[in-house]
Design a protein that fits this description.
Elements: H1 3-8, H2 11-30, H3 33-118, H4 123-149, H5 155-207, H6 210-219
């Protein structure tokens, strides 16, 4: 077992595997024949309780993992809301002054046109104003369009979040597969022990001695 697996296993499971179950196995081996079946049953009950605890711990770990997977989604929603609010504020701050500028430009152009009709000498000044306004309009339009086309968040951040979420899901699947394999191995071991117990009881009954008959009667095989 790796160090990581040892950290993830609860202390109670470690104690059962390292101390309680081996101690009970030793009791079964050392028990007199008339107490052997009872001791074996106690060992089986202890192992069943241990497997039930492992399954419950496994379910808790799965629940924790699913909860952790929801955190990136919640954070993403929060970031989107924050970016949207910032975008709206930026639009208001930039658009209102732009409207004022455009209105001022329109008034200036109109007055310049009227002055050009009345005073031919102002043609050069009027043309200069028109060119300046056109350039300002182009620059402002370019800036606004660039901001409008920009995304609310960078694609690199989205890719990184997606990669982390996929890695988390794969890790959960690997843990679940490992737990399933271990439970299957434990089930096979329990079936093997049950078959050995049945064979032992059948042999005791066949001998027909006092101890065998008593054991068979106690387990319902007589």
């Amino acid at each position: 077992m790796t160090n990581l697996q040892s950290i993830l296993r609860p202390a109670k499971l470690e104690d059962l595997d390292a101390n309680a179950i081996p101690a009970k196995e030793a009791e079964v081996q050392a028990a007199p024949e008339e107490e052997g079946v009872m001791k074996a049953q106690e060992l089986r009950d202890l192992r069943a309780a241990r497997d039930d605890l492992e399954r419950r711990v496994h379910d808790l770990k799965l629940t924790r993992q699913v909860t952790m997977q929801s955190l990136p989604s919640i954070r993403l929603v929060q970031e989107n809301d924050k970016s949207l609010v910032t975008k709206i504020n930026s639009t208001l701050v930039n658009t209102v002054p732009l409207w004022e500028t455009q209105l001022a430009q329109a008034v200036t152009i109109q007055r310049s046109a009227e002055a050009a009709v009345a005073v031919r000498d102002a043609n050069d000044l009027t043309n200069e104003l028109l060119r300046a306004n056109a350039k300002n309009l182009r620059d402002a339009n370019s800036t606004i369009r660039k901001e409008m086309e920009r995304g609310v968040f960078d694609i690199e951040a989205v890719k990184e979040a997606n990669a982390n979420l996929i890695a988390t899901i794969n890790e959960s699947l690997e843990i679940a597969d490992e737990g399933k394999r271990k439970r299957a191995e434990a089930e096979a071991e329990m079936q093997k022990m049950e078959e050995e117990l049945k064979k032992t009881l059948a042999a005791a009954k066949a001998r027909g001695d006092g101890a065998g008959a008593a054991i068979g009667s106690a387990t319902g095989t007589a």
